[in-house]
Amino acid sequence: DTEVTQTPKHLVMGMTNKKSLKCEQHMGHRAMYWYKQKAKKPPELMFVYSYEKLSINESVPSRFSPECPNSSLLNLHLHALQPEDSALYLCASSQASDRMPEAFFGQGTRLTVV
Amino acid sequence: AQSVTQLDSQVPVFEEAPVELRCNYSSSVSVYLFWYVQYPNQGLQLLLKYLSGSTLVKGINGFEAEFNKSQTSFHLRKPSVHISDTAEYFCAVRRDYNFNKFYFGSGTKLNVKP
Description:
The complex is a heterodimer. By secondary structure, chain A is mainly β. Chain A is 0% helix and 56% strand. Chain A has strands spanning 4-7, 10-13, 18-25, 31-37, 44-50, 53-57, 64-70, 73-79, 87-94, 104-105, 109-113. In chain A, strands 2, 4, 5, 6, 9, 10 and 11 form a seven-stranded mixed beta sheet that branches. A four-stranded antiparallel beta sheet of chain A has the order 1-3-8-7, with no helix packed on it. Chain A is globular and about 45 Å long. Chain B is mainly beta. Chain B has strands at 3-5, 10-14, 19-21, 24-26, 32-38, 44-50, 56-58, 64-68, 73-78, 87-94, 102-104, 108-113. In chain B, the strands form three sheets. In chain B, strands 2, 5, 6, 10, 11 and 12 form a six-stranded mixed beta sheet that branches. A four-stranded antiparallel beta sheet of chain B has the order 3-9-8-7, with no helix packed on it. A two-stranded antiparallel sheet of chain B has the order 1-4. Chain A binds chain B through residues 4, 6, 31, 33, 40-43, 45, 48, 50, 55-56, 88, 90, 92, 94-99, 101-108, 110, and chain B through 32, 34, 36, 41-46, 49, 51, 88, 90, 92, 94, 96-98, 100-102, 104-107, 109.
């Protein structure tokens, strides 16, 4: 199983709503990532979890709150977002291996903030 | 820090013609190199990777890439493209498997015309 599964695929939320994005992988990867991607741009790193601990936070606003409940799951909690936060949110995972160092990506959640 | 430059933002090409997408990186240490493809509203899919050894690597869908250490390049090639190859292509580097950060180029949109 080389899949990273993200739910939901699409999400529309108001600026006062609270919602969560979910990501799951069963490849035994110990690093998991959240990326934000705007149209016609490369993925922009938001957070990295390594062995279930937050290891990288790329100065992301506090209205985005990541959580890693266990080694297979990664959540991104959203609260009081702005319209400019509308984007494709990608989850990825990777392992610490010199034979398979690549990142595996989910299909993304298309978020629209209204 | 690493950086990745994709010299062409768009590459138009006719079906069955060859194509080369260019990627240059800067790094003072050895890195892992990757090419990813992204179809509209989807996640990133790994095309191929360079870890070490042979400088010519073959990937999925008939793509190949050549690692050139002296020119710090990792250009992607396909001898004959199909309409279905129309997509965004991203070059990426990772410093080593203990460092959980991937650096992406700005992307190249391959537009295959009939």
